[in-house]
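Hi team,

As requested, here is the filled-out complex form for the guanosine-5'-triphosphate run. I kept the field names the same as last time so the parser does not choke. Let me know if anything looks off before we queue the next batch.

— J.
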Amino acid sequence: MVSAKTSGIIVKCLGGLYTVESPDGIYECKARGVFRAKGISPAVGDSVTVSGGVITEIGERRNFIIRPPLANLDQILFVVSTVSPAPNFLILDKFIAIAEYKGIEPVVVITKTDLGDGSAVREVYDSIGIKTVEVDYDDAESVQRVRELLSGRISAFTGNSGAGKSTLLNAVDPSLDLATGEISRKLGRGRHTTRHAELYKLAGGGYIADTPGFSTFETNRYDLIRKEELAACFREFAEYTDSCRFRDCSHTCEKGCAVVEAVEQGRIPKKRHESYCTMYEEAKQLKEWELK
Ligand SMILES: Nc1nc2c(ncn2[C@@H]2O[C@H](COP(=O)(O)OP(=O)(O)OP(=O)(O)O)[C@@H](O)[C@H]2O)c(=O)[nH]1
Ligand SMILES: [Mg+2]
Ligand SMILES: [Zn+2]
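And here is what came back:
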């Protein structure tokens, strides 16, 4: 019954039409005109109230990513392949920093472990308390671990094109039947331009966003982090930043910097600090208007 009042979650948004999944069914809805007047647009992932086929209320957002527009993510799974493409720590750390900034749990998923060794990536993130999973398609248990991570939560997959995101999602839930390989890349570009995001309900509970992939360029243009806020996005720095000699320490190269010292002593992975320093330099170049 369309006229009844119900609440649910927006799973798809296309041309001003929203698909809302609620416990009593799926509704195709429009948004109340007043939202537009206030400059609010409902997004995939929003918890909403629907009445008479119209979205009348939007629940407060726990978090929001701009591109693709997704609200209320519990976690982002960063899919990294051991080879083709090879891992890029800087890009990975940029995405992880954005997730931390927004309070979304980052998880690192390592694929193509049959073609290369995933331990270098795994060790870095294990050591700083970020969850990692190595996927090996000859080991059903590893796919089961991903399934369990996704169960009951709203998640998004991201990572380089060709890293194996769709392959993994299909293994987790074969009913998704996502395109993989070359076909996917051709379709991917088309979908990319439409900025279309969609949440799929998983057989094991929970929702997963099939996104066209957050590209490198987008990290630089959207979701910028100020240099002063960057250290807080590197969780393993937290126990040291209060012990630096200077209060305005940038944690890049200062004398008496407790972070730099921890890097030298091997208590913070060197790779992570390198990413931090590069991002800090980039953040320094940002103009105020870019941070609006
Ligand atoms: N050997 C091996 N090949 C894999 C593995 N995972 C994925 N592949 C292959 O890698 C290619 C790319 O996989 P996709 O799942 O399409 O990658 P994707 O991340 O979804 O790529 P986009 O959709 O373009 O972003 C496909 O040919 C897969 O068969 C793996 O664990 N081992
Ligand atoms: Mg894909
Ligand atoms: Zn410092």
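Two things worth flagging: Residues 70-218 form a domain with the Rossmann fold fold (CATH 3.40.50.300). Residues 189-194 have pLDDT under 50 and may be disordered.

Thanks,
J.
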